[in-house]
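Q: Here's a chain of 135 amino acids. Please give me its 3D structure as tokens.
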Amino acid sequence: MSFVDIYHYYRHKMLYEDEAYKINGAMFEVYKNLGPGLLEKVYQEALEIEFKLRNIPYEREKRFHIVYKGLQLEQDYIADFVCYDKIIVELKSVTEITTIHRAQVINYLKITGYKLALLQNFNVPFLNTAERILN
């Protein structure tokens, strides 16, 4: 197999490709209607509406318990969304995505055992596909 063949094979076998495509479509629609520069909570609320319109199963502000040495901590992580019971969707409205934002999402993946998270920044002049972070 050539490099190009391998690339196309894995591109088509991307983890949760169909679900991520639908989630990204919903985020593009929100951005198209609202544009950049609003608060994260505004995008979160609009995205919830878009998920409902597109019949994308989700939980908003999903709370994850943290366990340390067998004991549950009082502090929880709260992800913006979990879609399809397996994809974490984390929204930002910041100047740029930093390693701290990525670390936050990686921690969500570690705590939950989920395999995929989508990290999207809405405070940009042109929206790109959400950053895929794998566990």
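Q: Can you summarize the key feature?
A: The chain has a mean pLDDT of 91.
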